[in-house]
Amino acid sequence: MSTAFAGKVVIVTGGTSGIGAALSEELLKRGATVWVIGSRQESVEKAKKVLGAYPKARFAAVDVRDIAAVERMVKDCVKNDGRLDYLFNNAGISQKNPYTESTLADWKEMIDINLWGVIHGVNAALAVMENQGNGHIVNMSSVAALYGTPYQTLYVATKSAVIGLTDCLYYEYLPKNIFFTVVCPGDVATPIFRGRVPEGAVPAEEAARIILDGVERKERLIVFPDFMKEVLEKCKDPEFRDLAHKYSEKESREMFESPEYRKFVADGKKGQKP
Ligand SMILES: NC(=O)c1ccc[n+]([C@@H]2O[C@H](COP(=O)([O-])OP(=O)(O)OC[C@H]3O[C@@H](n4cnc5c(N)ncnc54)[C@H](OP(=O)(O)O)[C@@H]3O)[C@@H](O)[C@H]2O)c1
Question: Most Cβ neighbours (<10 Å): which of 9, 24, 75, 133?
Answer without folding.
Answer: 24
